[in-house]
């Protein structure tokens, strides 16, 4: 079967890519290195041609995993990673200075076992550093042959335009799903105008739209534990919407994850969702959504169920939100700072 493709800058990739973060951390206990390597190879066998990682994921272990597992198949996929967020001496660091970007990139190349990353993102905006200076560092890295294209993650339309004025931006990565609609405020239109791909992370809403969350008994270290909408008393209210979403999926003969991915793909032709999974059957399930476009009435039914802002509770904690530049929805709830 020939899989649908979409375009990111100069790259043609599978219409659904693979987010690799949870092979190293974030959602419960990650798989062993051996199981993670097996899953990455299974993804390539199935036809995924976009792998997404970052220096932050697992403190560099995610990049190392990809380097060990699939770099012998380098010609089969487009490789993307990220800088600015990094782990320095065991602590999370946000540093968009040119020196930090160069340091993180050189470390990533070593961990990945390569001399070139196809698509390299600024993971977050460092408000202490003008975006023009950060992009300048990435332009120099491109000129040196270390990266092929430049991306931004969780940034506003205004920031995207400033960055694009320095050098064309190939991709903007933002959280986007039927339940999280922030890119619709301004980022999607900016991407359409400037010819930028929108890479949608968490397209199944961190498992909420994939049948994966039934209560808030998460494993230690799970990043959903402090997120207000994923814990009680708000989770029960949000699960009522999820139950209706699951019923829509069943009526359509789809899994909830396929319904969510189909909705994302239906929004604009330049959007590429990158769901993550640690489960081999889910790899095939997710990728199949690319070949099952949703009927317009089904897309409308999802929009009626999940209008912007339908989920109760803030998207992030106050500390996490402080690093987000993407526009807020009208009347979006913001978590109070920790006491």
TrEMBL record:
Keyword Protein transport: no
Coiled-coil residue spans: none
Keyword tags: Oxidoreductase
Record-linked Pfam families: Aldo_ket_red
Top-rank lineage group of the source organism: Bacteria
N-terminal signal peptide: none
Record-linked InterPro entries: AKR (IPR020471), Aldo-Keto_reductase (IPR050791), NAD(P)_OxRdtase_dom_sf (IPR036812), NADP_OxRdtase_dom (IPR023210)
Domain NADP-dependent oxidoreductase: 15-305
Molecular function via GO: oxidoreductase activity
Name of the protein: Aldo/keto reductase
Species for this entry: Sphingomonas glacialis
